[in-house]
């Protein structure tokens, strides 16, 4: 004969809505020890066991494992401590799920092949620290063994790619393209060559005047070049010569003759390297990744200026 106020597993199941199989499993695992047993060996549970079962169900629905539930019930760990640990684990799981969703959306958009899908997933799964380290290694290699302006290269490498926890397909695609770009041998050769030119100028004591000239005049030059483009004026025209002469003169350091053909060819090549569309793409992609306001492309007018310089060198 069983005590008043006790329940069989079947009655617990009806009261809680949990399957008999689940309640028996919890009992077998020690999470819900029976209050007593009948003469035939059937397990019985009282109201405290019913409340304990509701607590077990709540903790399991929140995603805690059996071991964590046991720790909470035996007071080896507080529910708060377990919740903190579980929130951290969930946050990481959610971050990874969001990245997977973004990868799949990008796959659908790009109609990617298997090898590209594998690459996209690998790049997307990188942590923020891994992404930043990849960029740091890129800039370290671009200046290794060269006498460069440390402040300039520190500024260049300080802008890091920071994907949000829930990146859009566009941001994820931008990060994948950005990672591919900084690992591309052609782009690395371009930036390394620019760094080498910069280093040689510093070694000879010649200040890179083009840098100052660009900062002071480039917007004006670019605007005029765009006007020429819009008007169908070619770089080898008188307008092109006028702008080229202005660039040659403004960029010449005191030790260089703006009319010297060698200087003009050198300057044209230097600006051509800086005006390479891949250099602008670098910043465009970084802006998409980090959610910066978009900026108008300067690639076309920059290429027009380079063509004008070469035409009148």
UniProtKB/TrEMBL annotation:
Highest taxon above the source species: Bacteria
Family annotation (InterPro entries) = DNA-bd_dom_put_sf, MerR-type_HTH_dom, MerR_fam
Q: Which UniProt keywords apply?
A: DNA-binding
Gene3D superfamilies, alphabetically?
1.10.1660.10
Residue span, HTH merR-type domain:
6-75
The entry's protein name is MerR family transcriptional regulator
Source organism per entry reads Amycolatopsis samaneae
Lineage of the species this protein comes from: Bacteria, Bacillati, Actinomycetota, Actinomycetes, Pseudonocardiales
């Amino acid at each position: 004969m069983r005590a008043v106020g006790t329940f069989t597993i079947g009655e617990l199941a009806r009261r809680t809505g949990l399957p008999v199989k689940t309640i028996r499993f919890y009992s077998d695992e020690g999470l819900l020890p029976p209050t007593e047993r009948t003469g035939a060996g059937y397990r019985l549970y009282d109201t405290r066991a019913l409340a304990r079962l509701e607590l077990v169900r709540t903790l399991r629905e929140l995603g805690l494992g059996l071991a964590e539930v046991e720790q909470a019930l035996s007071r080896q760990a507080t529910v708060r401590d377990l919740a903190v640990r579980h929130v951290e684990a969930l946050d990481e799981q959610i971050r990874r799920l969001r990245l997977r969703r973004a990868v799949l959306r990008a796959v659908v958009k790009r109609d990617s092949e298997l090898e590209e899908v594998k690459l996209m997933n690998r790049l997307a799964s990188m942590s923020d620290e891994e992404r930043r380290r990849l960029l740091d290694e890129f800039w370290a290699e671009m200046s290794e063994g060269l006498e460069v302006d440390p402040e300039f290269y520190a500024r260049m490498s300080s802008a890091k790619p920071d994907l949000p926890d829930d990146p859009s397909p566009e941001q994820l695609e931008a990060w994948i393209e950005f990672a591919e770009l900084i690992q591309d041998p052609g782009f690395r050769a371009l930036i390394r060559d620019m760094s080498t030119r910069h280093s040689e100028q510093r070694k000879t004591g010649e200040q890179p005047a083009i840098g100052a000239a660009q900062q002071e005049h480039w917007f004006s030059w670019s605007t005029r070049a765009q006007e020429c483009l819009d008007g169908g004026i070619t770089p080898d025209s008188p307008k092109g010569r006028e702008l080229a002469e202005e660039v040659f003169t403004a960029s010449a350091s005191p030790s260089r003759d703006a009319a010297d053909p060698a200087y003009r060819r050198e300057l044209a090549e230097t600006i051509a390297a800086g005006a390479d569309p891949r250099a602008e793409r670098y910043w465009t992609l970084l802006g998409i990744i980090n959610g910066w306001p978009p900026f108008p492309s300067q690639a076309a007018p920059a290429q027009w200026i380079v063509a004008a310089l070469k035409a009148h060198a």
